Give the backbone structure.
Amino acid sequence: MHCIAPECPLYGGSDSQLQSASSVPRHQLTTTQMDEKGDFLALDLGGSKFRVLKVKVSEDGKQHVQMESQFYPTPKEIIHGNGTDLFKYVAECLTDFMETKDIKHKKLPLGFTFSFPCKQNKLEEGVLLSWTKHFKVRGVQQTDVVSSLRKALRKHQDVDVDVLALVNDTVGTMMTCGYDDRRCEVGVIIGTGTNACYMEEMSNIELVEGDEGQMCINTEWGAFGDDGSLESIRTDFDREIDLGSINPGKQLFEKMISGLYLGELVRLILLKMAKEGLLFNGKLSTDLCTKGKIETRHVADMEKYKEGLNNTKQILTELGLTPSEEDCIAAQHVCTIVSFRSANLCASVLAAILTRLRENKKLIRMRTTVGMDGTLYKTHPQ
Ligand code: BGC
């Protein structure tokens, strides 16, 4: 298996190749995917950062992708506000980007990477099933997000954008990786949330007519365990994280793995150890007792090779603690355990998908490529 973490030029989604990815059988996908060229716009909403992109696909036997992008903040008022304001904001950022890039006069196709579980009957339609991660916008669940985006864009008469495709970030990652390596048939995200998609045989998909070729399945593996199947491995810390989250009982696997939660898991463990007198001479600090004060980027810093121990001392001191050398070593060890568990859980579900692919192909050994992306995957030192 060859894992690559591409800069994901089409992470934000382009049009025709993404159309193929989510709804067209693979035998059509391969031809369509390798042919398209031109300029596209893309929106990437749902990860750690909201991004608007301009993507240029050119072809000289092999496809080349050039990308320019801009990040926009996602203020709390927006991601915990109402749907109309969210799409108004997205449309404003897009027009601002087009203004900056001087492309307002161009009619461009747009791919919308929307990294949440959706029911998709068409490529340019996606009914949001539920919000995940830190998003909770009123009035969007059970509605088509493409229609809402188009409606918001209609208010900007100075731009003419054609929303052609809605894709999950895992699908965008798999498709992007496909430009570098045509064997890519799995896309994985380990970032704020976690998820994977893979190419399934049409003959195994009952919901869709026809047995020829393949189709992309978005597994939404972050929701694994929501039926109780992970209870034997969930800990008290996992339960506490879940209870304190905006979606209790949901995305239980994601809460054991992804960037939105690892820092808080570490904080809860350190707090319990301190309360039991195992750390910091039994002394607590206000910050150690405050939700969200340890973030996943801190966990990554504490685990860094060489400077990790110094970082740990600094981070704990900034939390208002007075750590000894042993405290720092122990805290660092807690980080390693939490990260290692996350990595192992990801590896096991990925292994399940790969086994499925191998069995589908009736092979004993299989060579394939997995497209990987996500802030946690890209920034964690291990
Ligand atoms: C969402 C997925 C998404 C993943 C990674 C999860 O919370 O449900 O749709 O692919 O996060 O962004």
